[in-house]
Specification:
Elements: H1 3-19, H2 26-30, H3 38-44, E1 51-55, H4 61-68, E2 72-77, H5 80-93, E3 98-101, H6 107-111, E4 115-120, H7 131-141, E5 142-153, E6 178-181, E7 196-199, H8 204-213, E8 217-224, E9 236-238, E10 241-243, E11 254-260
Parallel strand pairs: 1-2, 1-4, 2-3, 4-5
Antiparallel strand pairs: 5-11, 6-7, 8-11, 9-10
GO biological process, one term: methylation
Organism: Nonomuraea solani
Protein name: Methyltransferase domain-containing protein
């Protein structure tokens, strides 16, 4: 099974649907809307004048939002269709940014540069089979003193039933691969041309252990009680965020992690030539 080929075809077919969707609201972005979550902006801190790489950037909206805040941005994605859209949006908005088509594991070679910040946004890690190699890739991209910032769906949410979020229906340690045949993407009911995707689950321990093994120092791991789509039918929406209603027990829906590179040599794996 070639997970990369299947997933690339699946994401290539999502691109035109996502560009026209209310979920991504590309026209709103062009008018000045930022897709970044408020906790991300606060936790990353000042980016003006800093070099930032966004791995698995899709349409590039988050990357370009960091550029609007003053970062010197490079976005990378394995979908040429997505990168073409990212470049077009950047050009139309007059935002300076670099976008490169490559698999995330090839990022050090494809980018050939190092960065102050490596950013990975929500919904990225599920597409990667090997977190150890991913973390080594991140470490190879970071300048000494730079940091990784990751915001991601909490793996606990994958355990529970979709309706109430109260019943454990899945195995937390079933890492996959999980092959899905699904005609739609998450933005609506338009039918995808390529409907097969391959996903991989990672525990919170998997993520932290991979980051630490790559030589990065974890500065914080924070868990958040909100998400940004109706993951469970029992969630209530307010101001674009979805939370459990008052009075019921809660659990984390998203987590964020920041980890700093040291001043020593970077891991040998995937160093830029």
């Amino acid at each position: 099974m070639d997970y990369l080929q299947l997933n690339r075809a699946n994401w290539d077919s999502r691109v035109p649907i996502h560009v026209g969707s209310d979920f991504y609201d590309v026209e709103g972005f062009k008018a000045g809307r930022s897709p970044l979550r408020s906790f991300e902006v606060a936790e990353v801190g000042q980016v003006a004048g800093r070099r930032l790489a966004h791995l698995q950037c899709h349409l590039g909206l988050d990357a370009l939002a960091w550029a609007r805040l003053g970062a010197e941005v490079t976005g990378l994605d394995f979908s040429e269709a997505a990168i073409a859209q990212a470049r077009a949006i950047a050009d139309e908005c007059g935002i300076p940014a670099r976008f490169v088509t490559a698999d995330v594991y090839d990022a050090p070679r494809a980018l050939g540069e190092t960065y102050d910040i490596v950013y990975t946004g929500i919904g990225a890690l599920v597409w990667l089979p090997d977190l150890t190699r991913w973390a080594e890739t991140v470490a190879a991209l970071l300048k000494p003193g730079g940091f990784l910032y990751l915001a991601e769906f909490h793996p606990f949410t994958d355990l529970l039933d979709d309706e109430t979020g109260t019943t454990v229906t899945h195995d937390y340690f079933d890492r996959g691969p999980h092959v899905w045949e699904w005609p739609y993407t998450y933005t609506g009911d338009e039918v995808l041309e390529h409907q097969t995707s391959v996903q991989f689950r990672h525990t919170l321990g998997d993520v932290v252990s991979a980051v630490a093994a790559a030589g990065l120092r974890v500065e914080f791991l924070r868990e958040h009680g909100q998400t940004y789509f109706p993951r469970f039918a029992s969630l209530v929406e307010s101001g674009g965020e979805y939370r459990f209603p008052e009075g019921r027990p809660r659990f984390p829906l998203i987590y964020s992690l920041r980890a700093a590179a040291g001043s020593g040599p970077r891991p040998a794996a995937d160093r830029p030539a």
